[in-house]
Amino acid sequence: MKGALGARAMAKAMVAMLCFWRLGHGCTLDDTSSYHQLDSEVLRHRSNKALTWEEAAFLAVPSNASARASLKFITSKPHVAGTAGDLDMAQYVKESFEREGVEARLDPQKVLLTYPVSSALELHDNSGQLVAKASLAEDTLESDPTSHTWWRNHTFNGYSPSGDVLASIVYANFGLPEDFEALQAAGVNVNGSIVLMRYGKCFRGLKAMNAQKAGARAAIIYSDPEQDGYAKGSVYPYGPWRPKSSVQRGSIQFISLCAGDPTRAYFPHGMDVETLCGLSAKELIPQIPVLPISYGDALVFLESLGGKVAPNDFRGALNITYRFGPTKDQYKVRVKVENRFQSSPVWNVIGKIPGTLPMDLDQPVVLGNHRDAWVYGAADPNSGTAQLLEVVRGLGKLLREGWKPLRTIYLCSWSGEEYGLLGSTAWGEVQDDLLRRALAYVNVDTGVSGQHFRAAGTPSLAQLLAEVLGHVPHPDSGKPLSEHWGGKLFSLGSGSDYTIFIDHLGIPSLDIAFSPKDAQYGVYHSVYDSFTWMATEGDPNFTYHVAMAQVWGLIALRLSGSNVEAPLPLNLSIQAEAIAGYISRVKGNRSVPLDFTALEDASLAFKSAAARAMAEVHRLSRMGPQAPPEEVTALNERLGLLERSFLLPDGLPGRKWFRHCLQAPGLYTGYAPKTLPGIDEAMDAQKWDLAQAQIHAAASRIWAAASSLAPREAPPTVFTV
Ligand SMILES: *[C@@H]1O[C@H](CO)[C@@H](O)[C@H](O)[C@H]1NC(C)=O
Ligand SMILES: *[C@@H]1O[C@H](CO)[C@@H](O)[C@H](O)[C@H]1NC(C)=O
Ligand SMILES: *[C@@H]1O[C@H](CO)[C@@H](O)[C@H](O)[C@H]1NC(C)=O
Ligand SMILES: *[C@@H]1O[C@H](CO)[C@@H](O)[C@H](O)[C@H]1NC(C)=O
Ligand SMILES: *[C@@H]1O[C@H](CO)[C@@H](O)[C@H](O)[C@H]1NC(C)=O
Ligand SMILES: *[C@@H]1O[C@H](CO)[C@@H](O)[C@H](O)[C@H]1NC(C)=O
Ligand SMILES: *[C@@H]1O[C@H](CO)[C@@H](O)[C@H](O)[C@H]1NC(C)=O
Ligand SMILES: [Zn+2]
User: Fold this and answer.
1) What range(s) does the PA domain occupy (predicted)?
2) How would residue 667 be classed by pLDDT, with cut points 50, 70 and 90?
3) Which structural domains are found in the chain, ordered by start?
4) How many whole angstroms from 541 Cα to the centroid of ligand 5?
């Protein structure tokens, strides 16, 4: 690895890698993750803004029967990115858009993918005799008619290279740096071994990378029942949790260094991954074979381990004595992985509802959900796809009644997300001109995998979210979702398709989901994330599907506006509070050789610029349709483009593709996103010169944001409605 960060930084980089699904898709966000707590006053005033006729008409459209029917179709066959199933579902989504009068096109992007060919996992005794063989297959369930598929026998990790390794194994718990340190302290040799690790605590790419760095020749990752199996409750089909033969597939790309296709094959010439990310394709994916397995298969390999008894925090919920290894009695394990790397198109579907504002004043609103799945993906991601189609049905009804948005709405169904946010990143990089003026991006990935509403996003959108949630009841309690939510807005890191929009392009973003309270859902990335699971365990009445479609669509309606241009629904005072919070958090109470004055001055300047802008919002809002259009337009120019100011021209140290100075997936600590990441990470590495330089870099971006808010002459364009 190269770049401004040292080896230690890179070693810790993967600790911070978020899952591909920041919310409810595999990473448990604890309360120490970075978030902004919305003022109770703002939450209480959620219903200040009454529904317009369009909004009320929209809210009446999403239906549980319709969401159920589209989910049933989308999950009727496997649709892994780049396969025929993926193309079929792209066409289905495109036709569903067109049926509602929304123009839509397929947007193919050529990217690097991996498909499974074969694999084997065997235990050999000291004379080379085969003692046990893993099934590497997910059992067919009679109660789940889609569980019989070729893919159930082809469990794999995306971007794992092929390989055939015979060696002893050691057990490295979650594969965190401290787990490898514990092995080293216990005198267990990892170099040359196969490392067995369990899922949980951190993104699987981190596990692969840490194992590779420790000299492992191969890695195996299994799902311990403690994380999402019987320790949580009844297993599928008797409950929602992970059964014995179920395998968590998933990409092992090093996504927090640079998202998207590691080859950037879609750029015809000129731009390459090295230029864009500062790292080569080889540095973005592992170089050792990695195989995911079930706890049913893991058992015999864990039991084959000798060596010291592992400490408490290494123990999972299997009824065995967890040991460090190596394999006892000179037994050996063979891991064979054969994956095919292939450059193929993946198909985004882009729907468009043109706005009525002239093009040079348009500020497009982008809604997105990925469509590709590891097999059927009923929860991840197609609950979100069914919700997107409900949103489109609602907008279609409004279109037929004569409604037109002021601002263009893009409705995006991404592919290639599971491999590393491929489709959205490609579209964002290729369409950067179209997105230059985008107002916001609103993401739903796994729309429903539980009953708890969670949101991550840009603080300036928090108030809009609270207001919208005030109009949608929680499906169970019937209370407004705003109360249920409680105003905790997590920071965005990486992990789903919002990454290009917020982190690379500086577009305010939201990511919303219903997920289980303190865990990932049990059938995540397995063949059992199926329609039957959703209809029996996940959302049997499809009422959470409806609620999310209502929230998502209402956000889109309020951002896009209609009839007469009104001040944008962004609250920059909340953003100013959040920035002040980031600064006090990064400063902490440690005594460090750093001067934060520039940053604090910038924050104060931003706070007063935001207050002045919000006063203007208030004044013009009160005038309603009588507000002078050119004043509203000028204000909205400043509000809508503000977030771009936070982009660092050179990006973050060691990973230049990530350009936002306020947040990023953290490089050093935990899997929480980092706020003020350039400063925080340099401080962690005790690189004080770099930290001071990052303080000045962030301060200059915050100053730029403050001055971009100062009133200017109205743009010369003639305003027409
Ligand atoms: C829709 O939800 C209601 C409960 O609100 C339920 O009775 C009904 O069965 C659901 N319909 C479908 C198709 O899931
Ligand atoms: C799939 O795996 C099962 C073991 O669970 C095996 O019996 C079956 O033959 C395999 N099918 C194929 C097509 O490989
Ligand atoms: C593993 O061992 C080999 C040779 O024995 C050595 O060259 C290499 O540096 C070691 N790797 C690590 C990570 O210790
Ligand atoms: C755990 O394993 C031991 C030894 O094999 C066995 O005696 C015991 O009944 C098992 N306990 C459970 C809860 O399965
Ligand atoms: C589904 O809806 C029915 C009728 O409203 C209700 O009795 C049942 O509890 C609901 N089921 C779930 C899982 O919410
Ligand atoms: C913006 O949020 C602040 C809370 O931080 C609140 O006091 C203020 O009223 C909000 N402004 C508008 C225009 O809603
Ligand atoms: C300062 O930090 C330490 C540990 O980081 C913490 O225990 C202590 O409560 C903090 N003190 C204040 C005043 O915030
Ligand atoms: Zn997903």
Assistant:
1) 169-248
2) low
3) 2-30+572-709 (1.20.930.40), 40-112+342-480+512-560 (3.40.630.10), 116-341 (3.50.30.30)
4) 6
